[in-house]
Amino acid sequence: MAALATYLTQAIKYPEAAKRENAEGRVTLKIELDKTGAVANVEAVQPVPRTDMADEAIRVVRQMPNWQPALQEGKPVQSKFQLPIQFKTN
């Protein structure tokens, strides 16, 4: 999880309009991984604070390196989870 947090911190570009407006919020994404650990599907769970924040969170997650796949009885399987991403001005 530490590697994920580092990746997100480095990869996310705060949307310019949100930055100008000092907008903050949390986007929760529903992520599906395939049997290889690759991101197969990602979508924002409603409600989202701003569309531009949701779009940026989705962009970054789609570009993530593969995860280690989930295992069931020792075999790789598809998996789903939710990931909250906080947008906060400093």
For this entry, give a set of tags.
90 residues; alpha+beta; TolA/TonB C-terminal domain; three-stranded antiparallel beta sheet; two-stranded antiparallel ribbon; 3 helices; 34% strand; elongated
Number of domains: 1
Look up the CATH topology: TolA/TonB C-terminal domain
Query: Beta fraction of the residues?
Result: 25-35%
Distance between the termini: 22 Å
Quickly give the CATH architecture: 2-Layer Sandwich
At the first level of CATH, what is the class? Alpha Beta
Percent helix range: 25-40%
CATH superfamily: TonB
Q: Outline the low-pLDDT stretches.
A: none
Rg calc: 14 Å
Shape: elongated
Number of strands: 5
Overview of this structure, please?
This protein has 90 residues and is an alpha+beta fold. It has one domain: TolA/TonB C-terminal domain, CATH 3.30.2420.10. Helix content is 30%, strand content 34%. It contains three helices and five strands, in the order H-H-E-E-H-E-E-E. Strands 2-1-5 form a three-stranded antiparallel beta sheet, with helices on one face. Strands 3-4 form a two-stranded antiparallel sheet. A hairpin with a 2-residue loop joins strand 3 and strand 4. The longest helix has 12 residues. The model has no long low-confidence stretch (mean pLDDT 95).
